[in-house]
Design brief:
single chain; 100 residues; mainly alpha; 3 helices; 2 strands; 44% helix; 8% strand
């Protein structure tokens, strides 16, 4: 029988609707990567000034911390005005984490 792997993410408290929407979009793209990570994963992103960096470090995906995903998802920047930029950023995340 395989070993059980536990995944836990604490997301920022009191996120507004646009932040939650971006968080969910990001997590949808990242879910397969979290699941495939062959170890336990416990990330507290509450109060982090670099959530992408924390995720990148935990998953050993250094290039993820440099991606252009909107920091608004974690309340660290204004909402991007251009929805096309958000879609491009999500696509970029997906290309960074896809298995090679």
């Amino acid at each position: 029988k395989g070993k059980t792997r536990i995944k836990s993410l604490l997301l920022p408290k009191e996120a507004n609707a646009s932040e939650l929407s971006l968080q969910l979009s990001f997590l949808k793209v990242m879910l397969p990567t979290f699941v495939q990570f062959d170890d336990d994963l416990s990330l507290n992103l509450q109060g982090s000034d670099d959530p992408l960096g924390k995720i990148a470090d935990a998953l050993d995906l250094p290039h993820l911390s440099d991606c252009n995903f909107p920091r608004h998802a974690w309340g660290l920047a204004p909402l991007p005005e251009d929805k096309i930029d958000v879609k491009r950023a999500l696509f970029h995340v997906a290309t960074l984490v896809q298995p090679r």
